[in-house]
Amino acid sequence: MASTSAFALNLDGPTRVAMVGAGFISAFHLEILARTPGVEVVAVCDENLAAASAAARRCGVPAAVTDIDELPRLGAQVAHLAVPPPLHFDLTRRLLELGVGVFAEKPLALSSADARALLELAASARLPLAVNHNNVFHPAFQRLARRVRAGAIGRVEHVQVTLSVPLRQLDAGDYSHWMFRAPCNIVFEQATHPLSQIHHLLGRVQSTQATLLSQRELHPGQLFIDRWLVAAEAEHGTAELYLAFGQPFTRSTLQVLGSDGCLEADLFHDTLCGEEKTLYLDFWNSFLAGQRRARALRRDALRGLFGWMGATLGLRARSDQFFVGMRESIRAFHRALRAGEPLPCDARSGVEVSEWCEAVAAGVSGAEAPRPRFPEPGGARAGEVVVLGATGFIGRRVVERLLERGVPVTAVVRRLHSLPPEISEPALAGTLRVVQGGLLDAAALARALGGAAACIHLATGSGNTWDEVERVMVRGSLGVAAACRDARVRRLVYVSSIASLYTGADCGTDEIADSTDTDPLPAWRPVYARGKAAAEKALLEFQGQHDVGLIIARPGVVLGAGTPMQHGGLGLWARDNHCVGWGRGEHPLPLVLVEDVAEALVRAALHPGSELHGKALNLCARPPLSAREMVEELARATGRRIVFHPRSLALSEAMEIGKWLVKLAGRRPGAAFPSYHDLKARSLAPRFRCELAREVLGWRPVEEREEFLERAVRVHGRAG
After folding, report:
1. With contact defined as beta carbons under 8 Å apart, do 26 and 19 qualify?
2. What is d(CA 71, CA 95) in angstroms, rounded to the nearest whole number?
3. Could you tell me which residue, 217 or 343, shows the higher pLDDT?
4. Which of 145, 255, 379, 659 has the smallest CB count inside 10 Å?
5. Long-range CB contacts (< 8 A, 24+ apart) of 573-580?
6. What pLDDT shows up at residue 468?
7. Bridge partners for 554 per DSSP
8. Which residues, 6 or more positions from 21, have their beta carbon under 8 angstroms from its beta carbon?
9. Beta 205-219 vs 222-234: how paired, if at all?
10. Secondary structure letter of residue 647 according to DSSP
11. Does residue 220 have a cis peptide bond before it, meaning omega lies within 30 degrees of 0?
């Protein structure tokens, strides 16, 4: 194919594409691009070279780079941009100035003025610029749009949208994500999806009126508007939009009311039904309307079921609606580009969707809260304790307890945005040093540990594959130990987990003692448990060679305010109100309050003696509570229908084998045989002895049933 008339690109061969950004959403782009005709991915670009290299290796891409200036040299003609929204404008502008077209994740820019500037730049350079409004390509919405275009419901009068969804980051208390940094950001991050669909049906926005129904204070001064009601006028009709974020029940629907009928798409279930005028009397018309809706819903439900079964068995392509929307959006862009046709969801539509976002967010401060200017860390003070993972569930409590004791603290954090008040307030007051860095940042570790007396290593360092976990959790922890050695830190407390142990009923003992060896069959465990076991062994070997004052802590099932109530230690949460037990769920679990874990870690770091060096301490309390009882107490505390489903391990294993056989039949890559060894370990059948923490450190965790329930379970009822 010769150069297209619309764009200054020579497409004699395949379109050479670069992936800019190597985060979560880029994996979908790369998977789809690998199967898109006429496309060749030539590079992955990310400021994190390790992430770019891992994505490139996984997808067979020849180059991984950190600077977009290198992309023209590598032959890139178009870049798929999958980076956080605040970077969209600058990176898109730079790519266009380099002569590279752009297919950007939504939104095109955070203001319509910036989006319009990009439109003009792309037009003057004759370069393609489009936005991945993948919800416009959602299969149920596409079926609805075709019916609307065919005139099935006459003239469109009104569009009504409900988007009520959970947010994983809200549940986890991770408020550092960009969408929480200013009240209006959630509109550009989440509401862009339904707004792009409304724009597709009604055109440009004319006016809006937003009612803010409720809000939360995530951290002091950090507001998040979790429920919105928006009324709007557009070029071709009116709209009403209900937005609710962090909700326990998912509802995502779009209804179009026309002059001669209506259509309703359930985007979560991928169904479409509707009603049209008929010549019949009302009683018969009502009967027919119900019959037609039922028939349409039944047809779509069966289509979805058979589509899932076919995809699982490898008989047809993947058909879940999110993936299909992504695939069709990406392929439509490249198909139009190569044919020299107008681009779907082009830059002009990107500008107009940005106008919709601005109009919805009007009246809500859109300015991102300024990043606090923390004092320079300076040198370590006498007795300094360095906390890695200080912003986490346990880490925040550790910092609090150290400061309460008057111990100087250094917190090593990956991001400076939205630090919890336990970190930000003492840091701003100058009583706590903050060093920005990660587990693999040797320079940051050296800066933080220089002159310190002890280090509490809580950084998880997890990953999705064993290679990632081994690199970050195992080698990263060895790097921390080496940095402690070089800085002459006298004590390193590594926070592992009882997941590193084998805890099945057939483990050979009724009670697991401190310093029990890790699981003898780690390869049959998930990568997290395997990584914790490998990190323990590597650190103990390092301790034997260098004597870094290593103490390993193994907390049990850690509960308390600030963690989701759906804890995996209780069972498999098939839904947020349905827990399938790891067995009958009738034996007491090794539960422990987060505050008690923090107290034990602080005592271990400050303990003056060396008798615990090279030892592993179990940190489990003994409240007389089983998984079944915990779930029943959750139901009472929250007033919700939360159900515990006991299931024998043998039945669970049989069901997992059934799933494995289906995946095998479908030639699903990476389909590993389900591990009965791991399933038994999840039951947490033995009791845990914790003599070292109790006798050497004087640790006294909460174990009285009612007090434990008050602080671990009923807190969720108060929060709700």
Report:
1. yes
2. 9
3. 343
4. 379
5. 576/166, 576/248, 577/248, 577/640, 577/641, 577/642, 577/643, 578/642, 578/643, 578/645, 579/627, 579/631, 579/642, 579/643, 579/644, 579/645, 580/645, 580/647, 580/652
6. 84
7. 618
8. 45, 46, 81, 82, 83, 105
9. antiparallel
10. B
11. no
359 is written with which tokens?
Answer: 């109009």
* Mean pLDDT of the chain, nearest integer: 92
By the 10 Å C-beta count (0-12 exposed, 13-18 middle, 19+ buried), 173 is classed as: middle
The H or E element that residue 286 is part of is helix 282-312
Q: Sorting pLDDT into bands at 50, 70 and 90, what band is 4?
A: very low
Apex 314 CA angle, 313 and 319, nearest 5: 95
Give the pLDDT confidence of 247-306 residue by residue, as tens digits: 989 999 999 999 999 999 999 999 999 998 888 888 998 999 999 999 999 999 999 999
First to last CA, the chain: 60
- Residue 646 has which token pair? 């006991």
> Hey, what domains does the chain have and what are their CATH numbers?
15-132 (3.40.50.720), 136-309+342-361 (3.30.360.10)
User: Rounded CA gap, 133 and 196, in Å?
Assistant: 7
> What is the model's pLDDT at position 295?
95
The two tokens of residue 492 are 């390193």
Q: Which residues neighbour 208 within 8 Å (Cβ) at sequence distance 6 or greater? A: 230, 231, 232, 233, 359, 360, 362
The candidate with the shortest Cα–Cα distance to 591, out of 708, 694, 673, is 708
C-alpha 293/C-alpha 297 separation (Å) is 6
DSSP 1: -
Task: Give the Å distances, CA to CA, from 166 to 88, 160, 198, 601, 634.
Answer: 25, 20, 22, 33, 19
Segment (H or E) for 92? helix 88-97
For residue range 487-543, list pLDDT tens digits in order.
Answer: 999 999 999 999 999 999 999 999 999 999 999 999 999 999 999 999 999 999 999
- Taking residue 608's Cβ as centre, other Cβ atoms within 10 Å add up to 6
d(CA 33, CA 78): 12
Q: Which two tokens stand for residue 678?
A: 């791991």
What phi, psi does 711 have (nearest 5°)? -95, -20
The values of phi and psi at residue 75, to 5°, are 90, 10
Report residue 330 as tokens.
């990406």
**Would you say the pTM of this structure is higher than 0.70?**
yes
Of 1, 59, 69, the closest CA to residue 30 belongs to 59
Residues in the chain: 720
What amino acid is encoded at 570 in this protein? L
Residue found under tokens 């379109």: 15
pLDDT (tens digit per residue) in 659-687: 888 778 766 666 788 999 999 999 999 99
153-207, pLDDT tens digit by residue? 999 999 999 999 999 888 777 788 889 988 999 999 999 999 999 999 999 999 9
